[in-house]
Structure formats: C-alpha cells, structure tokens
C-alpha cells in the first residue's frame, strides 16, 4: 500500500489544502480523497478539484502509536 499526498481546491470558496490517503494505486487514492474532502468541507463532489500529486510514501511498514495508547 502507498500513501498518496495530493493538493486540492474547493472551487466555491477558493480554499486550497493538502490531503493524503492510503490506497493500492493513484486513481483509487484520487477518488477517495475527492469524496472525503467533499464530506469534510460540506460541499458537492463537483466542487472539489484534486490537483497535483505531491508525494508518495510506502505505507506497508508504517506504525503509529498515539500518546497514552499503550500501557
């Protein structure tokens, strides 16, 4: 699995940001990011433009532990 970092823009507000998603390929990540950003920004899918791919990271060996999650 690969983590894909994209830039995006909300057309109606002009807001620009970055969002990443773990997926098997770029097309799946691009689709998922568009849906997630539309949900988070409370806009229609047509209002979200997923732009340039900024970076990819190998997500297979990633391990994250939150503070206080382990004893």
Distance between the termini: 29 Å
Gyration radius (Cα, Å) is 14 Å
Series of secondary-structure elements, N-terminal to C-terminal = EEHE
Shape: globular
Indicate the proportion of strand residues. Answer: 35-45%
Organism: Paenibacillus lacisoli
Protein name: DUF1902 domain-containing protein
Question: How would you characterize the overall build of this protein?
Answer:
The structure is a single chain. The chain starts with a strand and ends in a 13-residue tail after the last strand. The longest helix has 16 residues, at 26-41. It is built from 1 helix and 3 strands, in the order ββαβ. Strands 2-1-3 form a 3-stranded antiparallel sheet. 23% of the residues lie in helices and 41% in strands. The chain has 71 residues and is α+β, with helices and mostly antiparallel strands. It is globular and about 40 Å long. It has one helix at residues 26-41, and strands spanning 2-10, 15-23, 48-58.
Brief summary:
The chain is of the alpha+beta class and 71 residues long.
Helix and strand topology:
Blueprint: E1 2-10, E2 15-23, H1 26-41, E3 48-58
Antiparallel strand pairs: 1-2, 1-3
Q: Which key phrases capture this entry?
A:
single chain; 71 residues; alpha+beta; 1 helix; 3 strands; globular; DUF1902 domain-containing protein
């Amino acid at each position: 699995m690969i983590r894909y970092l994209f830039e995006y823009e909300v057309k109606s507000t002009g807001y620009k940001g970055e969002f990443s998603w773990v997926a098997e390929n770029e097309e799946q990540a691009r689709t998922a990011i568009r849906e997630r950003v539309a949900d988070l920004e409370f806009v229609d899918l047509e209002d979200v433009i997923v732009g340039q791919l900024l970076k990819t990271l190998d997500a297979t060996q990633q391990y994250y532990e939150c503070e206080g999650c382990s004893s």
